[in-house]
């Protein structure tokens, strides 16, 4: 391809061309001027390596350019984190422009067309090499981020929310300072890693912070930054596998995520007991099923929110027990208790106000009966 005199001239001019390219970048590329001294030296190394690799290739017409390691191996891997692919293309374009401008004085008129053609071909090849470098860097970064994310989620499940874990969370781009929820559901069937990528893209699309991982056959997602986390749960639920998806109660910050994760996982284990449960379903709405499955936290919550408050008012307690367990109608309860139906109606409204569960609603009545039964089993009646 190139003749010996041409190659000799180009070789002697390598330092001059590198200096000229660096000066041109200083003049025309604002991002280059903003780099630190070390990063600027990395860019200059890449420019020099590119010119040297061009000269070597130009002198070996039988060789196919293999530029990735020749050019971009000159600088540390961290360069791919400092400048973008677009900025790297600027670097290449500027360096090639400097070499092209020097062709007239570095080659005879007869050799100039061949040299210009070589420069054009080389610039195309080096652009592809730059894209390859960034693709590999993105792939490696993605794999590392996935491993780091899995470690973080595992640490949160083990209630290890210490400074190193919080540092890893920050490294993953988590910015939430407010409330957080945990979603638990079946892992998607098929390609689990691909499914996690889809879930991450969905969260990013809706402006949510997300930490996710698969544990066994369960997919866990820690979700933050949303103004409406209930809506966020609905948006992300379709990206889980088949079956129930359970959302924890919102908690304030990552320190309380372990508790939220426990309630979400307990809800997931019990969710099959509610045939008509919505998807997603709140862990708090599954308290009866969780209690029946032996979840101590759910048992305590139902006793505390239903049985104990009603024990403080004997009339309300007796009316609730009679209506729910003996005669589930206003008139029959009134006859059994020798009171007016309006009195029964009033007392049942008071039960709903105090406990949050309506005795006249099928789901509310079920929850109240479970709560009252658990309270009696706990011996609260004897303590009253």
Report, as a whole number of angstroms, the end-to-end distance: 100 Å
Count of individual domains: 3
Indicate the mean pLDDT.
81
Strand content: 5-15%
Give me the count of strands: 6
How would you describe this protein?
With 384 residues, the protein is of the alpha+beta class. Helices cover 65% and strands 8% of the residues. The protein folds into 3 domains: 137 residues, no CATH class; 112 residues, Alpha-Beta Plaits; 88 residues, Orthogonal Bundle (Arc Repressor Mutant, subunit A), CATH 1.10.10. It contains 19 helices and 6 strands. Strands 1, 2, 3, 4, 5 and 6 form a 6-stranded mixed beta sheet that branches. Strand 2 and strand 3 form a beta hairpin. Helix 4 crosses helix 7, helix 8 runs antiparallel to helix 9 and helix 14 crosses helix 18. The protein starts with a helix and ends with a helix. About 2% of the residues have low confidence.
In short:
Helices cover 65% and strands 8% of the residues. The chain has 384 residues and is an alpha+beta fold.
List the helices and strands and how they pair.
Layout: H1 4-12, H2 14-28, H3 30-33, H4 37-58, H5 67-72, H6 79-82, H7 85-106, H8 112-157, H9 163-171, E1 179-186, H10 192-205, E2 209-215, E3 218-224, H11 229-236, E4 245-247, E5 251-252, H12 257-270, E6 281-282, H13 287-292, H14 296-311, H15 314-325, H16 330-337, H17 341-355, H18 362-377, H19 380-383
Parallel strand pairs: 4-6
Antiparallel strand pairs: 1-3, 1-4, 1-5, 2-3
């Amino acid at each position: 391809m190139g003749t010996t005199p041409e190659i000799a001239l180009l070789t002697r001019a390598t330092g001059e061309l590198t200096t000229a390219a660096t000066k041109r970048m200083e003049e025309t590329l604002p991002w280059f001027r903003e780099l630190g001294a070390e990063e600027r030296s990395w860019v200059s190394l890449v420019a020099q390596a590119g010119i040297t690799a061009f000269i070597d290739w130009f002198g070996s017409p039988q060789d196919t350019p293999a530029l990735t390691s020749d050019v971009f191996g000159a600088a540390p891997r961290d360069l791919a984190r400092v400048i973008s692919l677009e900025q790297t293309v600027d670097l290449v374009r500027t360096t090639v422009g400097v070499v092209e401008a020097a062709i007239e004085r570095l080659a005879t008129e007869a050799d100039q067309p061949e040299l210009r053609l070589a420069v054009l071909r080389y610039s195309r090849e080096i652009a592809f090499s730059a894209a390859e470098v960034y693709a590999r860097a993105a792939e490696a970064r993605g794999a590392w981020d996935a491993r780091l994310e899995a470690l973080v989620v595992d640490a949160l499940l083990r209630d290890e929310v210490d400074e190193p874990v919080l540092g890893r969370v920050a490294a993953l781009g988590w910015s939430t300072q407010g409330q957080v929820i945990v979603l638990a559901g079946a892992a998607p069937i098929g390609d689990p890693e691909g499914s996690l990528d889809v879930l991450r893209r969905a969260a990013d699309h809706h402006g949510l912070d997300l930490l996710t991982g698969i544990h066994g056959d369960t997919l866990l997602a820690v979700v933050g930054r949303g103004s409406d986390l209930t809506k966020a749960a609905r948006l992300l639920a379709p990206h889980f596998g088949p079956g129930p998806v359970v959302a924890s109660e919102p908690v304030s910050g990552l320190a309380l995520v372990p508790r939220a994760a426990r309630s979400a996982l307990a809800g997931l284990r019990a969710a099959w007991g509610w045939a008509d449960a919505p998807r997603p379903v709140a862990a708090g709405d599954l308290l009866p099923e969780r209690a029946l499955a032996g979840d101590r936290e759910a048992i305590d919550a139902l006793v505390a929110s239903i049985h104990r408050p009603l024990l403080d008012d004997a009339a309300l307690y007796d009316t609730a027990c009679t209506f729910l367990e003996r005669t589930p109608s206003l008139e029959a309860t009134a006859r059994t208790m020798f009171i007016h139906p309006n009195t029964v109606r009033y007392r049942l409204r008071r039960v709903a106000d105090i406990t949050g569960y309506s005795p006249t609603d099928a789901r509310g009545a079920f929850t109240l009966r479970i709560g009252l039964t658990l309270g009696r089993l706990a011996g609260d009646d004897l303590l009253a």
